[in-house]
Amino acid sequence: MILDLKGIYKNYQQGKMVVPVLKDINFSMNEGEYVAIMGPSGSGKTTLMNIIGCLDKATSGSFFLDGKDISACSENEMSDIRLHKIGFVFQSFHLLPRQSALANVEMPLNYARVPKKVRREKALKALDRVGLSDRVNFKPNQLSGGQMQRVAIARAIVNEPKLLLADEPTGALDSKSGAQVMDLFRTLNEDGVTVLMITHDPDIAAHAKRVVTILDGELQEKR
Ligand code: ADP
Ligand code: MG
Predict the structure, then answer these.
(1) Whole-structure pTM value
(2) Buried/exposed code over 119-156 (b: 16+ C-beta within 10 A; e: otherwise)
(3) What digits encode the pLDDT tens for the residues 69-101?
(4) How far is the CA of 216 from the centre of ligand 2 (A)?
(5) Which atom of ligand 1 is found nearest the CA of 41?
(6) Closest ligand 1 atom, residue 217 Cα
(7) What is d(CA 99, CA 213) in angstroms, rounded to the nearest whole number?
(8) How far apart are CA 173 and CA 188, in angstroms?
(9) Is the Cβ atom of 41 under 6 angstroms away from ligand 1?
(10) Which of 108, 91, 10, 104 is nearest to 52 (CA)?
(11) What ligand 1 atom has the least distance to the C-alpha of 40?
(12) Interhelix angle for 101-111 vs 116-129, to 10°?
């Protein structure tokens, strides 16, 4: 099991008020799965993704990622887990604007202290997997939205993460580029990448093999 969440609650403190955002989330995922978490704006999707991505901690509950108890981890341990086990894809790509596609994809490998030659080989291979071998030296402003998102996906998979996490990956794309990103996720999943995608769009969620709904901070799953 790659993910196991039991009884997860997340509250935000708003002045003197406690705002409950996630309520008793129970969710698990096996390696190799392709799951979508779908829910309307404000339902708690990003809050949940931040917890699963080890960017934030739950208020209470138990959370294991790849067998490790994250609730017991320090900030440093969490950043280590992010670097080695999780690939992130965001709605707005989060690319470095002055850097080439290749340099953007190499970035996580720099942090992981991978030697330069290996870095380059792995980044070129990742760009090839997303179909951008002919764009490696282009900067983000020389790429279309769909191409920028594919660079971001190459960056997310370059370190061979245990889990690919995507928050509204098609939210900023036209429908044709969105469809290409969905094709890519399917191919990556067929090649063994575990994918967890978060979206408000039922048509996008339908690309996953399993869909879980979040409404007002509570998960519901039809099996
Ligand atoms: P979604 O991604 O589904 O649109 P979010 O997880 O971003 O939803 O937000 C869920 C709820 O949590 C919203 O009502 C939002 O206002 C609240 N929220 C999110 N982040 C914070 C924060 N840092 N402080 C207070 N409330 C927050
Ligand atoms: Mg969100």
Answers:
(1) 0.95
(2) bbebbbebbebbebeebbebbbeebebbbbbbbbbbbb
(3) 999 999 999 999 999 999 999 999 999 999 999
(4) 13
(5) 4
(6) 10
(7) 37
(8) 19
(9) yes
(10) 10
(11) 3
(12) 130
Q: How far is CA 111 from CA 36, 51, 82, 177, in A?
A: 29, 22, 11, 30
SS (H, E, C) 192-213: CCCEEEEECCHHHHCCCCEEEE
How many angstroms separate the alpha carbon of residue 149 from the centre of ligand 1? Answer: 24
**What φ, ψ does residue 189 adopt, rounded to 5°?**
-65, -40
Architecture per CATH, 3-221 = 3-Layer(aba) Sandwich (3.40)
Extended strands (E) in 32-178: 34-38, 60-65, 68-69, 86-90, 163-167
CB 28 within 8 A of CB 3: yes
CB atoms within 5 A of ion ligand 2 belong to 45-46
Condensed to tens digits (0 to 9), the pLDDT of residues 30-78 reads 999 999 999 999 999 999 999 999 999 999 999 999 999 999 999 999 9
